[in-house]
Amino acid sequence: MNYKIQDVKKSFDGVITRNLGGGEFIIRINDAEHNLKILEMSTKGIEFILDQRYHRARYLENSTSEMSIVIDNVPVTINMHTHFDDIVYKNSGGGGAVNAQTSLKSQIPGKVVSVTVSEGDSVKKGDVVCTLESMKMQVTVKAHKDGTATSVIVKEGDTVAKGDLIAEIK
Questions:
Q1: In sequence order, what are the beta bridge partners of 103?
Q2: How many CA atoms lie within 13 A of 22 on its CB side?
Q3: How far, in Å, CA of 162 to CA of 6, rounded?
């Protein structure tokens, strides 16, 4: 999974490569392997040893897209799923041939929290058409091509399913 720490330019990939049992794991962060031993884990936080150094993390706030924690008395916000907007954009037509598709569809179920385009507005490829909230995460739905919004189907407060029409862009 890809993670980004707020105010740090680089993101990193973290994955568990081996479960050694008894709360011990081998994890890979980017290209380096590390030893991890979980000492205690609860809904309030986690105590662990990473490469023979003790650490304590306390959870402050957690959502699907972001986690606020305090690690060794240092507040940190971790943005998870940093490429989620790109995935939604690609699957809503952004990865296809230019002008091949007029329908902009939702690739996730969610609630429409804002609509930034009106019928008749000119849009550029990548412009935000609306923002959806799904699983406590806000995801922007972006125009898949340059054109004019000939119809905007959704309005603020609507609920959409995966594959529902958001707008027509011609």
A1: 168
A2: 2
A3: 30
pLDDT tens by residue, 133-164: 887 788 888 988 899 999 999 999 999 888 88
Ramachandran sector of residue 43 (left: φ over 0; alpha: ψ -120 to 50; beta: rest):
alpha
The answer to whether 127 and 54 are in contact (CB under 8 A) is no
Name the burial class of residue 16, with classes exposed (0-12), middle (13-18) and buried (19+) by CB atoms within 10 angstroms of its CB: exposed
CB hemisphere CA count around 6 (13 angstroms): 12
Centroid of chain to Cα 129: 17
Q: How far is CA 25 from CA 6, 16, 158, in A?
A: 26, 7, 44
Please answer whether residues 4 and 16 qualify as being in contact, where contact means their C-beta atoms are separated by less than 8 angstroms: no
Range scoring the smallest mean pLDDT among 25-29, 96-100, 133-137, 151-155: 96-100
Other Cβ atoms closer than 10 A to 105: 19
Give mean pLDDT, residues 96-104: 61
CA dist., res. 57 & res. 67, Å (int): 11
The tally of CA atoms less than 13 A away on the side-chain side of residue 134 is: 17
